[in-house]
Amino acid sequence: MSNQPQALTQDFVYALASPNGSDQTRIWFAARQSGLYISEDHGHTWQPAYASLNLDAPLPTTCLALSPDVASDGYLFTGVPGHIMRSENGGKDWQAVPLPYTSSVPTALAISADFMKDGTLLVGTNEDGVLRSTDRGLSWATWNFGLVDFNILSLVLSPTFASDGTVFAGTGSGLFCSQTGGKSWKELSLPVGFVPVLSLAISPNFEEDETLLAGTEADGLFISHDRGQSWERLGEKEIQGVVNQIILPPDFPVRGEVIVAHEYTVLCSSDGGATWEGMLEAEIASLAAFWDKSGGISLWVGMIDGSVKRI
Fold it and tell me: Using one digit for the tens of pLDDT, what is the confidence trace for 2-20?
């Protein structure tokens, strides 16, 4: 990154996002250990997005979520220690909303695809489980009935969450599912037992294909075609350790690419996970991927030093 303060020697990029989910947008957000940054020139230069707050010290920003219609409604949310930061004008101004437990550190944010109607988003935390808001982030309540591990590592909502209420949460000791919008939870079993689930990805066509992918801390990548009831391992030879992130194309499974951040490597499969090839080796912290109409992939990579690269 250029034109940005470097407060920390190691400035982890936790998340990357663009307002319209397109590689063509000029606006990008990067959630970093030193705060939230915005680029308005396609990632060439970056500026602090919390400038209006006049902060005296860096504000670690561990997760990020944009409204599905952020380009028109302006809703943007970030997770910082003890609070959710919310903006209604694309990050120009901010409101800090305290979480029920001020010791909570947000680890994942997930927003309803029907957000402007139901106002729902969920946040996973490091020690207080899952919290839920139905008023566009103005207030938060814990919903942990049946959740036996409150260390949330990953969180994903069904594309049809507004009608089916389905949420999956990866924790330090396994995977949980809610079909009540996050109010109650049931544990799901992976073939490798109760292991940390660092990443989750859900099929855009989940209502029909029921496909879910889970990346673990030390046991590789798994796929389910029945909402997490049964699993098969993907890339057993190529993917044997940490899977930090999983990305699927918007028309999956018609387009069969699967991209994962594995250790310090980005791996891509073009056949739904049957075969894999390396795209990049670097000190990767986060990914964002986009597909054009011709099938080409562009990849944005957040590094552990705070820089962002496009490949």
Answer: 344 344 457 999 999 988 6
